[in-house]
Design brief:
The record marks 149 as: Transition state stabilizer. The chain contains eight helices and 14 strands. It has helices at 15-25, 44-48, 116-138, 160-163, 171-182, 188-192, 208-211, 224-227, and strands at 2-7, 29-33, 52-57, 65-70, 77-79, 92-97, 100-106, 142-147, 186-187, 201-202, 214-215, 218-222, 230-235, 251-255. It starts with a strand and ends with a strand.
Length: 257
């Protein structure tokens, strides 16, 4: 089973590229972030035409997450990260699919830091850890994936100096990420690329793509039962170079059936 994550940076704006990627790579599950669409405008019909069913948690102009499944519709799903009833940002959706639990997230960016946006990021990560501990306790094969907006290691960025003040690389952000891992999760891309140098994001500015000035913020975290089934993981880098592409590239993991 191939499970993928793609920060699409506007589902309507990138729809041709998204359909192209789905048809060419055909993941069983495709998790999208930053769909930037209210629920009523989400283009579910376009995905149905190529055999994908969709569930989504939208928000006008900002945020938004969705899960596309190939061939089979999801019976039940949950929207929103537990722990703060007042949080109205659409950043989390989860479901079961073919015996694997999928949790798709778009973690807060946190910039500028310090400040309320960074505080929200760290509080959100604490809520995420609580939910991920619950998922671990279930002992189901589980994949938590998406745009984490955290650069875990210096080897995950083209220039440590240039990103040093960014919320994505602050010690508190990294510590919160490592607390997630230390509870028992496997970072699929990092495990298979221990020397780093694998990017998932290239900014639109300053020729970042052309210079390969990128960093890794899109992650695939596997529970022990899922990690035991991992056979491959990677980044579909070439899709970042296509016309009107997202500033992220898709990332994916393949699990034994």
């Amino acid at each position: 089973m191939k499970i993928a994550s793609f920060n699409i940076n506007g589902v309507k704006a990138r729809l041709p590229r998204l359909i192209e990627w789905l048809e060419e790579t055909r993941p069983a599950v495709a998790c999208l972030q930053e769909i930037k669409s209210p629920d009523e405008n989400f283009p579910a019909g376009d995905f149905e035409k190529i055999g994908y069913h969709a569930i989504w948690h939208g928000q006008k102009s900002f945020n938004g997450v969705a899960i596309l499944t190939d061939g089979e519709a999801v019976e039940d799903h949950t929207k929103g990260l537990p722990g703060d009833p007042g949080d109205d940002q659409s950043r989390f959706i989860e479901c079961d699919y073919r015996g694997v639990h999928i949790a798709n997230l778009y973690l807060p960016n946190g910039n500028p830091q310090p400040g309320p946006k960074f505080d929200y990021k760290l509080a959100w990560m604490e809520r995420l850890r609580t939910r991920m501990r619950e998922l671990l306790a279930s002992e189901k094969p589980t994949v938590v994936l998406g745009d984490f907006n955290v650069i875990p290691h210096d080897r995950d960025v083209w220039s440590v100096q240039r990103m040093a003040d960014d919320a994505l690389m602050q010690p508190a952000s990294r510590d919160a990420y490592f607390r997630l891992l230390n509870d028992g999760w496997t970072d699929a891309i990092d495990t298979l690329n221990p020397r780093g140098g694998v990017w998932t994001f290239w900014d639109y500015q300053a020729g970042a793509w052309q210079r390969d000035h990128g960093f890794r913020i899109d992650h695939l975290l596997l529970s022990p039962a899922a990690a035991d089934r991992m056979v491959a993981a990677g980044v579909d880098k070439e899709y970042r170079g296509r016309e009107k592409a997202s500033d992220h590239a898709p990332v994916w993991v393949e699990l034994k059936d």
